[in-house]
Amino acid sequence: MLGTGSVTLVGGGPGDPGLITVAGRAAIETADVIVTDRLAPLAALAWARPDVEVVDVAKIPGGRSTSQADINQILVEQAKSGRHVVRLKGGDNFVFGRGGEELLACHDAGIQTRVIPGVTSAIAAPALAGIPVTHRGLTQGFTVVSGHVPPGHPESTIDYAALAASGTTIVVLMGVRTLGAICAALVSGGLPADTPAAVVADGSLPSQHVVRATLGTIADTTAGIKPPAVAVIGDVAQIAGLTDGHRA
Ligand code: SAH
Asked: Could you report the per-residue pLDDT of 185-232, keeping only the tens digit for each?
């Protein structure tokens, strides 16, 4: 019989390998196989064993991105062959990282699975720009949404009017392309156009940059910005406790 393999979902943090947890690093150091993709902090692979097999599912021949079903199958097959597999993702695997799907696929296949949470860019990118997602006296919560599809898109399930009225800080991931439409929907929902807003791109990386504007102007101000970037909308976005470009 083959040895017992396992899958460990490791949250890699926003990019700087210093922002991976101690448990995440230990899992990387002992892995037989590391399955990575585009936003995973690749510098952390330097901690892996010299004989580790790295499978970059963003680079597998036949397409820029491997289908989720194929990724699940890679995880299950590798573990079934007795290997310890680390699934390394950017941020936290369960925040727009399909970690839930991978966990269920491994569970269904009877694979021993562990989850090591990561530092999500939803909180870390604003934090690295000196923007707290909550702040006593300013907001009692924050809401994280995906901007992958714009408001009004048939696949969008977000109630932007409710979001505008929520009184929480709004954090938008995957929203570089759709930020204009999202801001317009929030203004239509009653959020004042002069609400502070900021965009943090490449959070924690040497190329980190921060743009501050308002809900009404942030999309135009950040027109040239490339992903990955997080948008923060709400009174906290005017807090500037750190100079732009500060890193962990
Ligand atoms: N699981 C990840 C998010 C995956 S979705 C996490 O928890 O962070 C990908 C989106 O995350 C990007 O489009 C961007 O909005 C955000 N993101 C990831 N890394 C980032 C970084 N270093 N700086 C700013 N935004 C980042």
From this structure: 999 999 999 999 999 999 999 999 999 999 999 999 999 999 999 999
Look up 37 and say whether it is catalytic: yes
Mutation pick for ligand 1 pocket among 96, 173, 179, 222 (CB with most ligand atoms within 8 Å): 173
Give the residue extent of every domain in the chain. 6-116, 121-238
Q: Cα dist. 227→112, 113, 121, 187 in Å?
A: 34, 31, 12, 24
Instruction: Name the CATH superfamily housing domain 6-116.
Output: Tetrapyrrole methylase, N-terminal domain (3.40.1010.10)
* Segments of the chain with pLDDT less than 50: 1, 245-246, 248
Residue 1 among the catalytic residues: no
Ligand 1 atom closest to residue 204's alpha carbon, by position in its atom list? 22
Tens digits of residue pLDDT in 152-163: 999 999 999 999
> In this structure, what are the phi and psi dihedrals at residue 114, rounded to the nearest 5 degrees?
-130, 150
Return the ligand 1 atom nearest residue 93 CA: 1
Q: Looking at residue 29, what is its pLDDT?
A: 98
* CB contact set of 217 (below 8 Å; sequence gap of 6+): 197
Q: What's the pLDDT score for residue 248?
A: 47
Identify the active-site residue in 56, 70, 80, 174. Answer: 174
Binding-site residues, ligand 1, Cβ < 6 A: 14-15, 39, 89-92, 95-97, 120-122, 125, 173-174, 200-205, 227-230
Q: Which contacts (CB < 8 Å, 24+ apart) does range 99-104 have?
A: 99/9, 101/68, 101/72, 102/7, 102/9, 102/71, 102/72, 102/75, 103/9
pTM above 0.85, yes or no: yes
In the set 32, 37, 92, 202, the catalytic residue is 37
CATH H superfamily, domain 121-238: Tetrapyrrole methylase, C-terminal domain (3.30.950.10)
